[in-house]
Amino acid sequence: MRVGLNGGAYIYQGDLTPNKYGSFRTIQPGFSLFVKKPINHFLAARIHMSFARLKGDDSRYSKPEFRQQRNFYFTTPVKEFSAQLVWNIRGRNYDDYGIMPYIFSGAGVSLISVKKDYSRMDPAVFGESSDIYTGLAIDNARGTPRALLSVPVGIGAEYPLSDRFSVNLETSYRFIFTDYLDGFSQSVNPKRQDHYHSTSAGIIYKFGKKDKGIGCPVVKL
To answer: 158-163, long-range: CB within 8 Å, 24+ apart, which pairs?
Structure first.
């Protein structure tokens, strides 16, 4: 069994950034804990917990110009709990040397508490007759979710330092199936779903006796 601790950067991807890859101007810190148990040489089961924040801010972007005038903002803590399967690409779950790339996916829940702010919006540009003003009324009436179904998908690599310690680096993208991660939908772009992703690095400790999996019986002649 292995226990890991990672720290890294968490990035919001949604309507409050023009960058389709996410809001790199509002990167937030976070950390994760996980317990991993090899099933065989290729496959391992992992329980993963993340604690981070996400943030989006129209005012950080001068182009297109309407973002400075709309000036929406949000922040939320994120507590994510998921069960994952990890595929060791080289089939070396029981080895203690060399780089071991892996991919992973699973399912879980992300707990959030969104605080959104639209008080900085320019009323001279977006008045009561505007689509944004009408959309805000719909968004406010709907409210924001507190729990989201999350599907993490990612890739990483582990490098053993000894038979007990390893270091790892991984990137994880979360599909969350909502447009209300930032608290805005009808007032921005209801056709575009929100997501978030992270890149982190950390250390892993291996408990117990060294396990080589299912080996062949010894035959004495």
So the answer is: 158/99, 158/100, 158/102, 158/204, 159/98, 159/99, 159/100, 160/95, 160/96, 160/97, 160/98, 160/100, 162/96, 163/96, 163/206, 163/210
